[in-house]
């Protein structure tokens, strides 16, 4: 039988991790290798894992305790360096999966040797288990690009070959957005397939403000695909969001270059007052309108980036500081210069 390694990074996960381990114990596939990496938790997580391991002597469970917190990317890299399985899956401490998840995905991978990974549909729930979203991706180039660029949990619902993860340190050593580059590299390595069945439940907090570092990380990651984003363009998008909250049109998006950098920056750098429901809906509307672009350009978006690609960090730092401080600038372009109102346009689905 084929050995599957499951990587489970955890930080302050004592209330949750037993449930994740129970899901792995219930998997119909054997043999399994479970690698738990505790990222310097102070809530007794290692003791919970040790107790669970003692109660399941039939399972191979390795516990790696990091002396200092390095973030989920570092924890996953540590586990991958020790993994022995021909296939690798990820599961976070507060996420869950059905008992047949690994068996179903492994069967697909072994039936189609050319594949590098097999994803699955997943549901998103809040801390109480209440559904908040559902991801139903297909296997078109545009959909897979969408998953790699926009939906971080894509990687957590995927079983992949070791060869697709062969690059050392595939996860970025940072606390925010560490999985986005790994998702793209995974799709660059080999074709992917999707099982159109919910196999994973991903837990999230829909009310938690996005860490500003996420936008910086996404903008840097996407710079090779879109080119650098100018400060003027970034401020133009910000002003447009405020000026036209009910008029989100494809023409408005097309007017600003670096589409995906813009989307990533807006998602990550919005200040606290921009986390109200209407702004969340507005952001989702921009993502929805980007779908046709993804469908048309999915293949090119999955192409490996050029090593000479420009970076956006030099201007992102000052811009992030202004967002966080709530400062206003009088010299940035006004929305009417970038997004002129179009007479007769139908209001977007976000209106009202």
TrEMBL record:
Gene3D superfamilies: Spore Coat Polysaccharide Biosynthesis Protein SpsA, Chain A. Residues 325-337 have a biased composition (Basic and acidic residues). Residues 5-123 form the Glycosyltransferase 2-like domain. Keywords: Glycosyltransferase, Transferase. It comes from the Bacteria. SUPFAM superfamilies: Nucleotide-diphospho-sugar transferases. It holds the Pfam family Glycos_transf_2. The keyword Zinc-finger does not apply. One of its GO terms (molecular function) is glycosyltransferase activity. Residues 325-352 are annotated as: Disordered. Belongs to the glycosyltransferase 2 family. This is Glycosyl transferase, family 2.
């Amino acid at each position: 039988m084929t050995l599957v390694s499951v990587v489970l990074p955890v930080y302050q996960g004592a209330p949750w991790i037993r449930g994740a381990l129970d899901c792995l114990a219930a998997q119909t596939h054997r043999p399994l290798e479970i690698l738990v990496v505790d990222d310097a938790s102070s809530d007794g997580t290692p003791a919970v894992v040790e107790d669970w391991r003692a109660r399941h002597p039939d399972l191979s469970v390795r516990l790696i305790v990091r002396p200092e917190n390095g973030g989920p990317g570092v924890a996953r890299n540590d586990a991958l360096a020790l993994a022995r399985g021909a296939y690798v899956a990820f599961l976070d401490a507060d996420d869950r999966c059905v008992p047949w998840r690994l068996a179903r995905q492994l069967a697909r991978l072994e039936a189609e040797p050319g594949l590098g990974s097999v994803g699955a549909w997943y549901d998103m729930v809040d801390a109480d288990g209440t559904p908040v979203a559902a991801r139903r991706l297909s296997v078109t180039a545009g959909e897979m690009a969408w998953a790699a660029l926009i939906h971080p949990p894509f990687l957590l619902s995927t079983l992949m070959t070791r060869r697709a993860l062969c690059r050392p340190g595939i996860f970025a050593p940072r606390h925010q957005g560490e999985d986005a580059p790994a998702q793209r590299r995974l799709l660059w390595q080999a074709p992917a397939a999707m099982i159109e069945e919910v196999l994973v439940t991903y837990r999230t907090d829909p009310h938690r403000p996005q860490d500003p570092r996420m936008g910086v990380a996404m903008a840097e990651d996407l710079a090779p695909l879109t080119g650098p984003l100018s400060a003027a363009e970034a401020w133009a998008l910000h002003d447009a969001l405020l000026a036209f909250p009910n008029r989100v049109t494809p023409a408005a998006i097309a007017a600003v270059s670096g589409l995906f950098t813009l989307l990533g920056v807006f998602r990550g750098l919005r200040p606290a007052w921009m986390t109200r429901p209407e702004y969340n809906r507005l952001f989702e509307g921009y993502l929805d309108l980007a779908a046709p672009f993804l469908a048309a350009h999915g293949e090119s978006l999955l192409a490996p980036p050029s090593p000479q690609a420009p970076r956006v960090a030099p201007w992102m730092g000052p811009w992030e500081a202004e967002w966080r401080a709530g400062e206003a600038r009088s010299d940035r372009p006004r929305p009417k210069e970038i997004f002129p109102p179009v007479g007769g346009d139908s209001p977007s689905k976000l209106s009202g």
